[in-house]
Amino acid sequence: MSASQPSQSFSSPESPEPPESRESPESRRGTGTPTLLVKIFGKDRPGLTAGLFDTLAAYSVDVVDIEQVVTRGRIVLCVLITAPVTGGTTEGDLRATVHSWADSQKLQAEIISGTGDNRPRGVGRSHVTVLGHPLTAESTAAIAATITSTGGNIDRIFRLAKYPVTAVEFAVSGTATEDLRTALATEAAGIGVDIAVVSAGLSRRAQRLVVMDVDSTLIQDEVIELFAAHAGCEDKVAEVTAQAMRGELDFEQSLHARVALLAGLDASVVDKVRAEVRLTPGARTLIRTLKRLGYQVGVVSGGFTQVTDDLKERLGLDFASANTLEVADGKFTGRVVGDIVDRAGKARLLRSFAEQAGVPLAQTVAIGDGANDLDMLNTAGLGVAFNAKPVVREAAHTAVNVPFLDTVLYLLGITREEVEAADGLVD
Prior knowledge:
Elements: E1 34-43, H1 48-57, E2 63-71, E3 74-82, H2 91-104, E4 108-115, E5 125-132, H3 137-149, E6 153-161, E7 166-173, H4 177-191, E8 194-199, E9 209-212, H5 223-231, H6 234-245, H7 251-260, H8 269-276, H9 283-292, E10 296-304, H10 305-315, E11 319-328, E12 331-337, H11 343-357, E13 364-368, H12 374-379, E14 382-386, H13 390-395, E15 398-400, H14 408-411, H15 416-423
Parallel strand pairs: 9-10, 9-13, 10-11, 13-14, 14-15
Antiparallel strand pairs: 1-3, 1-4, 2-3, 5-7, 5-8, 6-7, 11-12
C-alpha cells in the first residue's frame, strides 16, 4: 500500500464521522440490522489485513464495507461488518478476540456498535482535483470549508501525485458540480492553487479526445517569432502583436500583417525553425500517457502547418490543423493559403476532430493559453487554461498555473504512480 491510496470516508475534515453513523432508513441492511465498525491502526507490515479477516472469519460475519489507507508506514483499516448471530458467539466474544489479536500485533483497535450500512451519497457527485506547489494546510482548509459551504460532503480524499506538484483529489457528493466549480474557482484565485471540478460517473473513464493549442501550450515558443528572427523583423512582428493585444487588430488582421513581414524569406528556414522549437516540460509524458490509455490527441494552431505537421509526426498525434504559409519559387510570399485558423476556427476544428474520433463533445478536453482559444475551451467538456492570460483563466472551466503540461493528467484522475508504472513497461 502507498500514501496515494484512498483514505477513509469523512463527512468533513472538521468532524470525522464513522461510516455507520451516516446510515438512513433507506440504506439499512435489513430492518435495523446490527452492525459493528471495526477500526485498527498502527505500524503497517505485510499480513495485517489478512490477519484481521482471519480473526473475523471465526464469527461468520458478513463484510458490509471496507476502507484502508497507509500513510508514512501507518495503517488505518476500517471494516463494517454484521454483528455475530450464529454459532453461539456474541458481540462481546468478537470484541475480546479482535482486541487480543490487535494487542498481539502491537496495534490499537476500536469497535463501535450501530445498525445498518452507510447512507447513500447525496445527489450530485463530483471529483475535485487540487494542484498545489506547494499545497499548504491553509489552502486545504479553505477548500474544505468552501465545499461544505455549498452543501457538499467530502466522501474521500487521496493523493494523485507528490511531484512535480502535490495533487490531491476530493470525492464530493451532495451538491451540483456547476455550483461547486463556481465556488471553488473563486476560492482558488485567492489561495494560489489550481482546482478542477468535473462530474463523477462512467464518462470520466471513457475514451476521450484531447486537443491542445500549440504556441505557449504544447511548445514554449511563438512560431511566428521564430520565423521573424530569421527574417530580421522581430521588432516589427512584436509591434503588430502588441496592436492585436490592445484590440486594435483582430486575429486575422494581425496574422496577415505579421506574415507579410516574412515575404522573401527562404523556405529552407523551416528546418531550422523546427529544430528550434522547444516542447513544454511534460508534453511528451502527457501525450505518451494519453495514447497508452487509448485517448486520441490533436493540436490546433494559429501558427503554421510547416511546424505542426512535424509535431504531429514526431509526437504521434492523431489530428493537427494550422494556417499554411504560401511558398513560391522556394520563398515565402508573405501570404497564407486556405481557411484561417482563428478563435472560431479552433472551436470548429475541435468539433470536427470529435466527430472523426467518434467522441461526444462532453468527453473532449481542450487546453490553451490565449484569448483565441476561448471558444475551443468553452466548447469542450473540460477546458483547461494553461498558464493563461487572466481573461482566459476566468472564462475556462479550470486553470493550471504550473509549467508542467503533464499535470493535466491529474485532472483526469490519473496518478503519478500509474504514469511511472506505464513508463516502466515496454510498449
